[in-house]
Predict the structure.
Amino acid sequence: MRSTETSPLTRKLSVFVALSYVELAVLDRLHTRRRIFPAGRDMVHQGQSSRAAFILSAGWVCSYKLQPDGTRQIVDFQIPGDFLGLRSVLLRTSDHSFEPVMDIEASEVLDKDLLDAFAQTPRLATAILWAASRDEAMVVEHLVGIGRRDADARMAHFLLELEARLALVGLADSNGYECPLTQYHLADALGLSAVHVNRVLRHLREDGLLTFRDGHVTIHDHDALVKLAGFDASYLDQTGPLLT
Amino acid sequence: MRSTETSPLTRKLSVFVALSYVELAVLDRLHTRRRIFPAGRDMVHQGQSSRAAFILSAGWVCSYKLQPDGTRQIVDFQIPGDFLGLRSVLLRTSDHSFEPVMDIEASEVLDKDLLDAFAQTPRLATAILWAASRDEAMVVEHLVGIGRRDADARMAHFLLELEARLALVGLADSNGYECPLTQYHLADALGLSAVHVNRVLRHLREDGLLTFRDGHVTIHDHDALVKLAGFDASYLDQTGPLLT
DNA sequence: CGTTTGGTTGATGTATGTCAATATTAGTGG
DNA sequence: CCACTAATATTGACATACATCAACCAAACG
């Protein structure tokens, strides 16, 4: 089965680099060792030293840091096709935790296999490093959002970014996308209280911008959202720089 | 002159990897092409494609992103010994701007020279990538701070982090350190208004925790600051993981 | 000297948090 | 199939941390 369907990761990377058969095969071989992780139970725990990374094939995960006072800040969400814990492999330690938002399916990648794959196909290595840099750019944008955007703009920006990311792996259409996050997830990611998240969502809905209900985000007025959020997608699609 | 004094970068990396003579020499050779940049004028501009990175040898720089509405968010500060624009070299594009906080001295590093150095001395490459990962961890911690800490704790955390970073390159003693930032810089970095930064500093001073005056930070009660900020330095000194 | 830049302080406004109550829904065991 | 519980969502009343506006001061600077 594996070789006939394209994995989300393959799909994502293919947008930026035309991968050869050999590279596709190497990528495919990283997808042995599929595992299921149940919702809500940490996969990797803050401070734990770990030598494995994962490629997420189905479901969503969030990576977060816990504060001494018990509050948590979600740093990023991982969606199908995303790497998880790439830095843990390089640094041999993880400075935040990973928790599946729902039951998920992920392929465990041992550091040795990853390094072997990199050695075999430098272009693949480049593509994956590109993806990692893109993740970092998202964290920076996230920082800017929390620091300098009000709650409405922050929410709009966040949901637009998700749309763009999901579209890349075929999980969004022109109307919207499935989103399994609770309002508590949104609150922890955006630095808001859950109550205020609810109010912001109502506000956006009443203004005819978007609807988030029953796990589905429906975009009503894309242009107005982009304007409200000050959304500039250029940090997401740095097209072509690494194609050489 | 170059070979008799140790650069801040050398000093920083030496804490984590015992560098050989050859490696020290390679590192030293990256410090040709010294240049002076005047305070306040952007070195690299958002969106500009650039193939050069810099090693900061004297002075402070801030990297920031501008919002469409004119506000700015400072993502990080660079201090002597820090790399500047390492990602620009890898991605061939810069998604934020760099502005010297004061007149600075930096060594320009061409991407070719950097890649050559990496090829010659893998251990050096590892050490520099470690430093880059550490920078990323700082951005994450910064995100957590803005999202989940109140203004006092945020300020305390920020100034403690700076102390730890400066100590590593010999720019802090047990009392405190020189800090050329204005309250406007602090405001843009911490997501606060300049007025409130002033009030927070007064508050910390009146509580006998620290004094920030005339470009000098004096720490009065380190323990109390650590407690207030929920400061856990483990994200800064991931000692040893890469020594192999 | 006037001008600019950075700092300081008070009065007031507002975005967002906190608390509390009530739906709504999904799951769970009987 | 039904009660029971636990999540999640929703809404209002109230509290507060922080922003904004405005004025003033001190030092640096041309």
About this structure: Chain B touches chain A through 41 residues (CB under 8 Å). The mean pLDDT of chain B is 88.
